[in-house]
Amino acid sequence: MKTLFFFLLLSLGALFGQDQRALGKSEEASYEGKIVRITVDEKDLSIGASFKFMERTLDRVKDEGAKAVIFDLDTPGGLAFPTKELMTKLAELEIPTITFVNSEASSAGSFIAISTDRIYMTPGSNIGSSAIVSGGGQKIDPVMRAKLESFFGSHVRYIAEKKGHRPEVIEAMMFLSDEERVVGDVVVKPGSLLNLNSTEATKLMDSGPLLAKAELKELEDVLKAEGWSSDDLVTAEPSGFERVAWWVASVSGLLIMLGLAGGYFELKTPGFGLGGIVSIVAFSIFFFGNYVAGNMAGYELAAIFALGLILIAVEIFVIPGFGVAGITGLLMVVGALAFSMVDGVEWQKYQWGGTGVSELLSAMAGPAMQLVFGIFGSLILLFLMMKFLPKVKFIDDRMLPSSLNAGTGMETQDRAGMTGVARTDLKPSGKVEVDGQILEVMTEGQYITKGDAVRIVSEDGMGIVVKKIPS
Question: What is the pTM for the complete model shown?
Answer without folding.
Answer: 0.64
